[in-house]
Specification:
Layout (H helix, E strand, L loop, with lengths): L8 H28 L21 H12 L2 H5 L6 H34 L4
Helix pairs in contact: 1-4
Length: 120
Amino acid sequence: MQQKRIQNPSKYIGIWLMIGVGMIIVQILLGGITRLTGSGLSITEWKPIVGILPPLSEPEWQRAFTKYQEIAQFKQLNAHFSLSDFKFIFFWEWFHRLWGRFLGVVFLIPFLVFLLKGSF
């Protein structure tokens, strides 16, 4: 079976790369917000696949907050935090990670398509 080549691949590769650059800029901005809000350690477990969703119920939020209360950042800097404060910093870290996952997919899928179609 012969693979169909992409017409004018450099145009599509250019669009893909520009989208990637834009997404990287957004990721850098999100990283800055995450850093400035002190959100970077709010998610205490790294679950790249199943950790895509934030806590969805009040008991799940309370469990996540309890885990956060066990780390040094909470004890030394944020002992005054309420659950509401925690949700705010959690959002920025979660969104930063979610955007990173999305960026990875936006890079990988077109890359594989271009590679398989012989566009490189």
